[in-house]
């Protein structure tokens, strides 16, 4: 929500400027560092972009691929032989313009598709790269754009039809994508969906590359899923109502934990994360078109399952069974659903006790896995795992310059609120702070410390355990860092996430204040040295806290937080507007709704701010205009 300009570096510069402007000596001591600058982790190391990104394995397991800068500093595609110890990466694209944005391996040997725009114009084109001849590496445009802002995006692939792809082109309507089946051998395409209604992200394709499900926002804030009618031409669909019949309707309270995942190998059964009649959602399977026949494969205990796209589920590339799922409360826990692979996971979990392994990619034969280790003590590490040898080999760190640095430990705790809710939070103590000798959990410092409350955005996002640059940076500068997954945060079930609806600048703020008071009562935070900061919704909440509880914080920082809920929602359209009306708990189209939003908009209560506050917003931010910031 909102644009962040010159994010990390500029934030530090503004923080220093804020320090000079604070009149109260106590607040000034709060911002000042208590440690030698030579001991600090340089900001450029913490906030620099990882040199290698988008790591993947080729389907045959031969190559490790990633995006990295060329000698000219332009992001290009590189390969490295995955099984050869000490193998050196080599460049296979040589773009000197805006670089390669993303890429995918296809199931056709030695062929990849690349996504690219021109000078950052976000008019994406799709290129096909053949690496069979390393001396003749020439990406070919899959679909020549014809006009205006026409763009082409990668859609889907299938191991069953290795020479074909589904691509998406907005060639008839700028806001919606038609689907085409593209043959990489004949270089021909055939339209399979003419679309003026459905979002690409809400489409589900089966293993024969046929469109089997779409979805759209419901007027009540829920979601409606559709399947093709029995009379529809599956190879030549439109978005017209005659081609679709309702599959299932998801209520607003269930939509955050209800989503289709993938088809089984025979395309007759469909996996879901299923929210109805469950707080956390369950892993379900049912015959296509018959959700009333759900069978439940896994039921989480405390936190929701991670999404497939976030490495939280592993699906076998050939037999399409779900191998494992991850449940996340304070930290990820992996549950292996197929006994064949329990030994592999046990080995990976024992290999690095201070990190959590995620299987982010596999070879087609499932014998080579790409592993990411996530930890609060070091940046992400990449490993190659050979299932035949039961052996993992270190590849590289995402930020090797930070290896060996002493950083804060991120501890998950649960804090009770004034109305009885249990709110999951994280506390990170400065790594050099002396601890209380009576504290067996290493959570209480010998003396209360200055603290920064770091509020996440969304609100339906969440903080999670790991190497978080902002957390590491603040703790390294001798601040306790409190991160609160207040009501409205995702990941803890529908009661928790829906509990934030209608509670912007009300109970959401109460949750954060209650967490702050808890740290004071426990002797963790010095009540006279507490700051609050956040981005997007986190910035909105920080400003509200400075207005509604002006004596609780000594200063605050708002980055791109909306100041006026009325203008924020008025600028939205369609499903997004309906979603935010549900979040905020009021309809901007009614007088009562506008009064509700007015009473919660920071722009109307600036006179209540008593302490220094920095407000940062992009000059062209469409949601936080300069006049409001």
TrEMBL record:
Example of a GO biological process term: proteolysis
InterPro entries: AB_hydrolase_fold (IPR029058), Peptidase_S9_cat (IPR001375)
Domain Peptidase S9 prolyl oligopeptidase catalytic: start-end pairs: 465-628
SUPFAM superfamilies, sorted: alpha/beta-Hydrolases (SSF53474), DPP6 N-terminal domain-like (SSF82171)
Residues in coiled coil: none
Short name of any one Pfam family annotated for the protein: Peptidase_S9
Top-level taxonomic group: Eukaryota
Name of the featured protein: Peptidase S9 prolyl oligopeptidase catalytic domain-containing protein
Organism field: Plectus sambesii
């Amino acid at each position: 929500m909102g644009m962040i300009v010159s994010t990390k570096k500029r934030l530090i510069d503004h923080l220093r400027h804020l320090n000079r402007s604070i009149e109260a000596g106590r607040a000034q001591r709060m911002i000042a560092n208590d440690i030698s600058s030579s001991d600090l982790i340089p900001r450029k190391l913490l906030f620099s972009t990882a040199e290698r990104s988008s790591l993947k394995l080729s389907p045959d397991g031969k190559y490790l691929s990633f995006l990295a800068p060329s000698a000219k500093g332009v992001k290009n595609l590189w390969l490295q032989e995955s099984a050869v110890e000490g193998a050196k990466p080599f460049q296979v694209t040589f773009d000197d313009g805006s670089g390669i944005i993303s890429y995918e391996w296809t199931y056709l040997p030695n062929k990849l598709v690349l996504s690219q725009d021109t000078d950052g114009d976000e008019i994406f084109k799709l290129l096909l790269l053949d690496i069979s001849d390393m001396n003749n590496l020439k990406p070919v445009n899959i679909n020549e754009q014809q006009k205006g802002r026409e763009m082409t995006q990668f859609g889907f692939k299938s191991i069953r039809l290795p020479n074909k792809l589904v691509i998406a082109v907005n060639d008839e309507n700028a806001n919606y994508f038609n689907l085409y089946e593209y043959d990489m051998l004949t270089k021909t395409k055939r339209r399979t969906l003419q679309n003026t209604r459905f979002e690409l992200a809400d489409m589900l394709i089966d293993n024969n590359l046929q469109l089997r499900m779409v979805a759209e926002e419901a007027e009540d804030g829920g979601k409606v899923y559709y399947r093709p009618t029995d009379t529809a031409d599956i190879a030549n669909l439109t978005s017209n109502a005659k081609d679709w019949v309702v599959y299932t309707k998801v209520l607003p309270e269930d939509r955050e934990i209800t989503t289709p995942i993938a088809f089984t190998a025979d395309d007759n059964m469909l996996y879901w994360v299923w929210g109805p009649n469950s707080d956390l959602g369950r892993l379900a399977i049912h015959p296509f078109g018959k959700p009333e026949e759900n069978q439940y494969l896994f039921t989480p205990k405390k936190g929701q399952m991670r999404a497939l796209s976030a490495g939280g589920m592993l699906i076998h590339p050939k037999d399409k069974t779900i191998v494992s799922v991850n449940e996340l409360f304070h930290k990820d826990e992996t549950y292996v659903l197929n006994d064949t692979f329990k030994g592999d996971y046990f080995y990976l979990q024992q290999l690095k006790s201070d990190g959590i392994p995620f299987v982010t990619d596999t070879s087609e034969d499932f014998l080579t896995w790409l592993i990411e280790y996530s930890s609060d003590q070091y940046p992400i590490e990449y490993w190659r795992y050979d299932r035949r040898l039961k052996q993992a080999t270190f590849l590289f760190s995402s930020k090797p310059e930070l290896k060996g640095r002493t950083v804060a430990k991120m501890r998950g705790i649960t804090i009770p609120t004034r109305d009885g809710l249990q709110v999951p939070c994280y506390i990170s103590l400065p790594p050099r702070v002396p601890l209380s000798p009576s504290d067996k959990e290493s959570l209480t410092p010998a003396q209360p410390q200055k603290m920064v409350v770091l509020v996440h955005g969304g609100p339906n996002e969440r903080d999670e355990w790991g190497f978080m640059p902002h957390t590491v940076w603040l703790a390294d500068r001798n601040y306790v860092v409190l991160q609160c997954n207040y009501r409205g945060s995702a990941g803890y079930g529908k009661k928790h996430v829906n509990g934030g609806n209608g509670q912007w600048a009300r109970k959401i703020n109460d949750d954060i204040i209650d967490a702050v008071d808890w740290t004071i009562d426990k002797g963790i935070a010095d009540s006279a040295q507490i700051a609050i900061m956040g981005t997007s919704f986190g910035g909105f909440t920080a400003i509200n806290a400075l207005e509604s509880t002006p004596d609780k914080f000594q200063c605050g920082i708002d980055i791109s937080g909306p100041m006026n809920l009325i203008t924020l929602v008025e600028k939205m359209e369609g499903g997004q507007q309906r979603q935010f009306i549900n979040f905020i708990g009021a309809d901007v189209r009614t007088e009562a709704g506008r009064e509700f939003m007015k009473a919660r908009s920071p722009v109307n209560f600036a006179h209540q701010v008593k302490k220094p506050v920095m407000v940062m917003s992009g000059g062209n931010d469409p949601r936080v205009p300069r006049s409001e910031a």
